[in-house]
């Protein structure tokens, strides 16, 4: 047992002695000018003595490792997140950071998991909600499994917010986001879906359009 432990320690030390010079060598190779500069007396140095880029990337990596998914961390840390669901829009990061989804619009609750009428969706279904012309913040009454009969064409300025419920889009068609803007989809489980022809989908304003789909 003892010997085994010592062996492990030795191995670790060896690994470190190999790794540390290799790391330094890398920096040297990467920036010879900086290495040369570092050897000069302090008053003649052009650059700071610390390898700052390394510091910066290390700091960034630490943040990313700590938070895992910073968007989830943004709302999960607030125990009352469900009191103001639209605050989620402020959590957007990266290229989507200006996305507001259905923020400012009504909250609409999906109560009906069926998708029996694609052309004239029943009120209470997800399909009805996503074709409304106004911005909507769509939430779900309960856990549900929704089997889409045709592609679900989501229109602009919508949030599909499944937080707090276990909502599965499963076994049927997929969600299509095409020629639309400003959509947030959160905590929705999409699984075992198959690509289907878009077919004909009618919006409430009476306009008709056909789809070939770009799948999500
Ligand atoms: C979405 O909302 C933005 C901002 O309110 C508005 O300018 C835009 O016209 C809306 N898009 C659609 C398709 O309604």
UniProtKB/TrEMBL annotation:
Residues 1-25 form the signal peptide. GO terms for molecular function: pectate lyase activity. InterPro entries: AmbAllergen (IPR018082), Pectin_lyas_fold (IPR012334), Pectin_lyase_fold/virulence (IPR011050), PEL (IPR045032). Gene3D superfamilies: Single-stranded right-handed beta-helix, Pectin lyase-like. It comes from the Eukaryota. Keywords: Signal. This is Pectate lyase. It comes from Dioscorea zingiberensis.
């Amino acid at each position: 047992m003892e010997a085994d432990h010592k062996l492990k320690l030795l191995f670790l030390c060896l690994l470190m002695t190999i790794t540390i010079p290799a790391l330094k060598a890398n920096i040297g190779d990467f920036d010879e000018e900086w290495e040369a500069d570092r050897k000069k007396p302090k008053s003649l140095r052009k650059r700071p003595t610390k390898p700052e880029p390394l510091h910066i990337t290390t700091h960034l990596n630490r943040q990313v490792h700590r938070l895992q998914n910073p968007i989830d961390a943004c709302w999960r840390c607030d125990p009352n997140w469900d009191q103001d669901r639209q605050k989620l829009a402020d959590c957007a990061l990266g290229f989507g950071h200006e996305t507001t989804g259905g923020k400012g619009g009504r909250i609409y609750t999906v109560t009906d998991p069926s998708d029996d009428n694609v052309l004239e969706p029943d009120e209470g279904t997800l399909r009805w909600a996503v074709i409304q012309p106004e911005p909507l913040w769509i939430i779900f009454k309960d856990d549900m499994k929704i089997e889409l009969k045709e592609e679900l064409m989501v229109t602009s300025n919508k949030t599909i917010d499944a937080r707090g419920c276990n909502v599965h889009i499963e076994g049927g068609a997929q969600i299509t986001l095409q020629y639309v803007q400003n959509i947030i989809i959160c905590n929705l489980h999409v699984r075992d879906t198959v690509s289907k022809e878009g077919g004909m989908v009618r919006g409430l304003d009476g306009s008709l359009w056909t789809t070939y789909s770009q799948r999500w």
